[in-house]
Amino acid sequence: QAVPAGSHVRLNLQTGDREAKLPDSKNGRSDTREERRRKRYSDAKHQEWVGCWFHVDVDSNSFTAQELKKALAKMKENEKAERKVRGAHEEEVRKKFRPIEQLKEEFEKLNMKMETDYEIMVKLISKFNSSASTLDEKVAALYDLEYYVHQV
Q: b vs e for 113-134, b when ≥16 Cβ sit within 10 Å of the residue's Cβ?
């Protein structure tokens, strides 16, 4: 259910109801405009007041179709704006860093093999499971594997 902007919303753990409260003014007293808004909102929605908190009905019919369309349109606009920002950030990252495939090729040209942590862990597991490995090699593989797993 739609509640006015700036409202405080809570879940009453005793009753399980969701409740909302309109904010008080800075001096702790409600001004007349806020009181009118509270009265208008409570009369329009037939809310049950509990102190200054009122029950929020979680009824699926509480939004009008137009309100939902506006909310969805806003969400789509926000998503498009976020996508533009994210795309610019990704492009900036691509300019700063090279892909791992390119780095591997350059290391191979230098006769150096670059392995990822995953590849190293697979080798250590296969060394541990190998019947040809000695007990010392298996213990060493477990210690090394512990290091890599700890990073993850």
A: eeeeeeeebeebeebbeeeeee
Is residue 53 within 8 Å of residue 41, measured between CB atoms?
A: no
- Spatial CB neighbours of 128, under 8 Å, sequence gap ≥ 6: 138, 141, 142, 145
What pLDDT, on a 0 to 100 scale, did the predictor assign at position 49?
A: 40
Distance CA 138, CA 119 (A): 17
Type of residue at 57: D
| Start-end of H helices in the chain | 32-45, 65-96, 100-109, 117-129, 135-151
C-beta of residue 10 within 8 angstroms of C-beta of residue 18? yes
Query: What gap in Å lies between CA 5 and CA 2, rounded to an integer?
Result: 9
pLDDT in tens, 87-122: 888 888 888 888 888 888 888 888 887 788 889 999
Mean pLDDT calculated for residue range 14-33: 66
* Cα–Cα distance list, 42 to 17, 19, 35, 108, 109 (Å): 17, 12, 10, 73, 75
- Rg over alpha carbons for the chain, rounded to the nearest Å, is 31
Question: How many Cβ atoms are within 10 Å of 56's Cβ, its own excluded?
Answer: 22
